[in-house]
Q: What sequence folds into this?
């Protein structure tokens, strides 16, 4: 009787050990999936917030002075800013790549009135990546 009881206890111990090991593997797989999902969400949020400094201008009215500052800040980048003033609506528009010292003079059709109000619109390319900003004078 002693040997059969020891055999049953050994078998129960082996079964419990297998269950605990199986539970451990299951929990580690679930933790890996959860961490992968979390990393994916953080990556997508990072991508969204990467362009937040540009997307804030979408639908926003800003003054001409702010337009000039924005052009000055983005002069060294590939970000294209197109300004449609009250006078240049019919002309061919080219994005500003000007340095702060080479803005058009007041008699020019491309002159940006510092007191004027401009409405921003973000331009996206085919891949939904921000390609530029169009600022249209509203007064």
A:
């Amino acid at each position: 009787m002693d040997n059969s009881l020891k055999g049953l206890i050994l078998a129960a111990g082996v079964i419990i050990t297998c269950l605990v090991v199986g539970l451990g593997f299951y929990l580690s797989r679930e933790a890996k999936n959860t961490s992968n999902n979390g990393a994916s969400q953080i990556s997508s949020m990072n991508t969204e917030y990467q362009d937040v400094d540009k997307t804030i201008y979408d639908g926003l009215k800003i003054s001409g002075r702010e337009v000039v500052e924005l052009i000055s800040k983005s002069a060294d980048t590939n970000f294209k800013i197109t300004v449609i003033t009250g006078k240049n609506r019919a002309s061919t528009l080219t994005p500003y790549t000007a340095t702060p010292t080479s803005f058009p003079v007041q008699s020019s059709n491309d002159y940006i009135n510092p007191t004027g109000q401009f409405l921003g619109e973000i331009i996206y390319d085919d891949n939904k990546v921000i390609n530029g900003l169009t600022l249209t004078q509203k007064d």
Notes: The two ends are 101 Å apart (CA to CA). The beta strands are 61-63, 80-84, 117-124, 130-137.
